[in-house]
Design a protein that fits this description.
globular; about 375 residues; alpha/beta; eight-stranded mixed sheet
Length: about 375
């Protein structure tokens, strides 16, 4: 039996394949998911739901059956499908006297420290009120071209789990878990019940993607599990077709695949870890040695600055060979750093004026690159 006695906050993610069929919404599936969430809530857990399906539902309303690749079309289908999806959840949750709230986010919401803190505060308030927040990517405005897209809801659910300090992420899919090979093609494939480290060998068994309307697959689920793992959150990948799957998982049944968490990080470390970088700072060997010993970065150690960024944004720090060392929240903009390259801290005031920091960033404002996906 698995021990989840430490778990208090759970993120449940359900995919397009589980929620839709040829006629549109699979109402029975919605009922089972809501029933499971209600049982978890009655067991004393705080539950957040990340739900795919809006684009698929919008496509099926318009009788569109081919993959939705064109961005304006994806946005239009999401706009049609979102209210349908939320109405289905609200109707079913009401049977258990549960109120749910829609939370649409983009990657930029989590990248910006202020909007992230506001989001976390709002979510904490909703949970304190007993409300189930239902997250989805805001596909109506989110596009890769403007850099605010998550790419898939598996990854988004992991980032949400990491950011709001969840203890467990549950990814419900149409397969029982991670297998040694594709169980649909190899009858000798065996279920992997527990994963301690997500190695290249583990990633190699996960290939392909889901339906014409989804963007996920087992590979994206393992990538999501790595994000959650590095944020100190365990992940369970299990079949959403199993009866009472959610309460059974939390009762310790060895269903699906459990990916164990890494060391718990602080909320600030998790934010830095998952944020997109706005630029790059290249440092010399002396500075590389200093930050490896948990020291601040001084401007004298900077060799090169690329990208355009403001102070308090997250940047990538590399050595002269291009190896990523860490992510950091910078105290200076890119234009300021260009002016400071190679200068000592005592010269900052003379170059930029009074009232400026004397270090580029402090150790507590960093996150190692190995934590990032």
């Amino acid at each position: 039996m698995r021990d989840f006695s430490y778990v208090k906050r759970i993120v449940v993610k359900v995919g397009t394949n589980l929620l839709t069929d040829e006629s549109g919404i699979n109402e029975e599936r919605i009922k089972k998911i809501c029933s499971g969430i209600a049982k978890l809530k009655n067991m004393g857990y705080q539950v957040l739901l990340v739900s795919s399906g809006a684009i698929g539902m919008g496509a099926k309303v318009l009788k569109h059956k081919s993959p939705v690749v064109h961005i304006p079309l994806r946005q239009a289908f999401a706009a049609i499908g979102n209210p349908i999806l939320m109405t289905a959840y609200q109707k079913e949750m009401a049977k258990y006297n549960i109120i749910c709230a829609q939370v649409l986010i983009t990657r930029s919401v989590l990248n910006n420290r202020k909007s992230y803190v506001n989001l976390r505060s709002s979510v904490s308030t909703l949970l304190a009120l007993g409300v189930i927040p239902i997250f989805n990517e805001n596909d109506v405005v989110s596009t890769a071209e403007i850099g605010n897209v998550f790419g898939d809801n598996d990854r988004m659910s992991a980032m949400v789990a990491s950011k709001i300090e969840a203890d467990l992420l549950i990814l419900l899919t149409d397969i029982d878990g991670i297998y040694t090979a594709d169980p649909k093609k190899d009858k000798n494939a065996e279920l992997i019940t527990t994963i301690d480290r997500i190695t290249d060998d583990v990633m190699a068994v996960a290939k392909g993607k889901g339906s014409a309307f989804s963007t996920g697959g087992m590979k994206t689920k393992l990538l999501a599990a790595k994000i959650a793992k590095d944020g100190g959150c365990a992940t369970l990948i299990a079949s959403g077709y199993e009866d009472d799957i959610l309460p059974r998982l939390l009762e310790g049944e060895e269903i699906g695949t459990l990916i164990l968490p890494s060391k718990k990080l602080s909320a600030r470390e998790r934010w830095i870890m998952d944020a997109s970088v706005s630029g790059t700072i290249v440092i010399d060997d002396g500075a590389k040695d200093a930050i490896s010993h948990n020291k601040s970065l001084l401007p004298s150690g900077i060799v090169k600055v690329t990208g355009n960024f403001n102070e308090k944004e997250v940047i990538l720090v590399t050595d002269t060979a291009g190896n990523g060392l860490l992510k950091a929240v910078t105290n200076f903009s890119s234009s300021d750093l260009h002016a400071l390259i190679g200068h000592k801290s005592g010269e900052i005031e003379g170059i930029l004026g009074k009232g400026r920091r004397d270090v580029v960033f402090r150790p507590e404002d960093t996150s190692p690159v190995e934590h990032n996906v």
